[in-house]
């Protein structure tokens, strides 16, 4: 069975990453959405093994010590990370795996999984992003401005990505990511085994034709 | 309007390139199938401007002299080539353009149009290719064997291509080429203008926020 493809999706907060990834997974049962581990306590309604793998700080640091994370970060007092083993298991079973992570995490993944595919989700315009961030209505002006500045700043990290997908329409964005997945599976470097097989088969047929011709001649 | 994408499709005779390209164009009105020019006389049923642009040898060589071909080749006593101007016109109008050409032609295109996308169509197996070539029923054993050996040899040229598409099912092969087109349009290098625009927009918003905060402060 072919190994699955590791797909890293990043993008500033407010671009609708979550919605896009959710729809993508709903439409593609062969996709596994990687669940992060965190040392922060569950919020109301969050479930262990669904929203996060909830760990104590001690457990998290122990795993980090064992290189058990594809990427990890400390945000304020909490740790977040992508458990490697689960991702590897799914890839080996032929699932494509989505990591919805930030640009710093993506850099870490790129260092150890060069074959991964990196997609950056963009808003149709910065005006639109500004309105989306503001529209959440849960944050004060200062937080909104900080979030926007961070998003703006994150655009500089885009050079590390292979593809950019503009999310002006969720269905179209999902469709584009599906196309990227399918296209990447056709890329030359991911099909070297197919080529070797065809060349070998061709050699055998050529040889048998040659033998037959010698016999006739 | 965005410029179209130049798509080069090659593959050994017998892989069903023609059928795949025909269906691809039928399903995508924004695709233009590039018609080749040739100095060979029309065969029964072939129409000028439809199957080929039929030229005299003199006309062909005059155009070649003026660098009017993206690629050209002499096959026995006849010349074949892809007229650049028509391709450029269509690309500028936003059409994606398909060149169904051989591996030698593809090399020439790669030298002058690095931004083009190169797809190699493959048979599901060499046994299958052998049967398809034989199954045409119009050629003698020697011609069949030569054609198969050529196909086998052509596999060596595959390193010049970006993607390989196995044609075990025409609809699926078409679907994969459509995905490649869509994915390529999302590639980072083809979206630098989008990025510049977003960064610029972000700068303006950041600046106006800054001004307002200074005023308040």
What attributes does this structure have?
217 residues, Rossmann fold, four-stranded mixed β-sheet, 8 helices
Describe what this molecule looks like in 3D.
The structure is a homodimer of 217-residue chains. With 217 residues, chain A is of the alpha/beta class. Chain A has a domain at 6-34 and 94-186: P-loop containing nucleotide triphosphate hydrolases (Rossmann fold). Chain A is built from eight helices and nine strands. In chain A, the strands form two sheets. A five-stranded parallel beta sheet of chain A has the order 2-7-1-8-9, sandwiched between helices. In chain A, strands 4-3-6-5 form a four-stranded mixed beta sheet. Chain A is elongated and about 90 Å long. Chain A starts with 5 loop residues before the first strand and ends with a helix. Chains A and B meet through strand 8, helix 5, helix 6, strand 9 and helix 7 of A and strand 8, helix 5, helix 6, strand 9 and helix 7 of B.
Distance between the termini of chain A: 44 Å
Shape of chain A: elongated
**Helical coverage of chain A, percent range:** 40-55%
CATH class call of the domain at 6-34 and 94-186 in chain A? Alpha Beta
Shape-level CATH architecture of the domain at 6-34 and 94-186 in chain A: 3-Layer(aba) Sandwich
Q: Count up the helices of chain A.
A: 8
Oligomer: homodimer
**Percent range for β-strand residues of chain A:** 15-25%
Rg over alpha carbons of chain A: 22 Å
Largest interface, Cβ cutoff 8 Å = A-B, 46 and 46 residues
Q: Unreliable runs of chain A, pLDDT <50, ≥5 residues?
A: none
CATH superfamily membership of the domain at 6-34 and 94-186 in chain A: P-loop containing nucleotide triphosphate hydrolases
Order of helices and strands of chain A: EHEEEHEEHEHEHHEHH
What is the number of beta strands of chain A?
A: 9
Strand order of the largest sheet of chain A: 2-7-1-8-9
CATH fold descriptor of the domain at 6-34 and 94-186 in chain A: Rossmann fold
For the sheet with most strands of chain A, the description reads: 5 strands, parallel
- What average pLDDT do the residues of chain A reach? 92
Structural class category of chain A: alpha/beta
């Amino acid at each position: 069975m072919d190994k699955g493809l590791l797909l890293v999706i990043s993008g500033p907060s407010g671009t609708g990453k979550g919605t896009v990834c959710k729809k993508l997974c709903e439409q593609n049962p062969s996709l596994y959405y990687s669940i992060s581990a965190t040392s922060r306590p569950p919020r109301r309604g969050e479930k262990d093994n669904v929203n996060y793998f909830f760990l104590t700080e001690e457990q998290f640091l122990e795993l980090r010590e064992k290189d058990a994370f594809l990427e990890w970060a400390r945000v304020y007092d909490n740790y977040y990370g992508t458990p490697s083993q689960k991702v590897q298991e799914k890839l080996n079973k032929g699932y494509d795996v989505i990591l919805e992570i930030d640009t710093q995490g993506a850099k870490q993944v790129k260092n150890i999984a060069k074959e991964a595919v990196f997609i950056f989700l963009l808003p149709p315009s910065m005006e639109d992003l500004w309105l989306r961030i503001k529209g959440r209505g849960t944050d004060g002006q200062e937080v909104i401005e900080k979030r926007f500045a961070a998003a703006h700043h994150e655009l500089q990290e885009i050079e590390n990505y292979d593809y950019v997908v503009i999310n002006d329409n969720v269905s179209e964005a999902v469709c584009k990511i599906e196309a990227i997945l399918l296209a990447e599976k056709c890329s030359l470097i991911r099909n070297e085994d197919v080529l070797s097989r065809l060349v070998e088969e061709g050699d055998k047929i050529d040889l048998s034709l040659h033998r037959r011709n010698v016999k006739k001649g």
